[in-house]
Please model this.
Amino acid sequence: MFSTSILASLALLPNLQLQSKSTQIILMQQIYDDYKRFQMDLEFVQLLANPQYIYQLAIKQYFEDDQFVNYLQYLLYFKRPEFLKYIKYPVCIKMLDCLQNEEFRLQMKDRNFADKISKQIEVTFQILQSK
Model:
């Protein structure tokens, strides 16, 4: 799992100079690979703040793929405080939670349902901005 592998990789950095050059290269490549994976996961999670994007995933049958559903479950690591701080659109975490539910994933195939969710998010932001 990424969330633990990058933390483990970063923990090795202080001792990096004590390692051989080839070990240093391997460790640096692992850190870089973990960082790229984190960036891709972060971008995808934040796309979930857009119900119209989720609607597109639903009608293209992504939610019928067990591997994709497992990926959504894997992404729950973003709820942990050490990763939550990177989220710019908090509603994406709520949508990620909702996507853990099969019924919600099925409902997202309905454009009217996706539009209703979009409207609810918009109204919520308007209320928060007025305070």
Notes: The chain has eight helices and no strands. The two ends are 40 Å apart (CA to CA). The chain has one domain: 2-130.
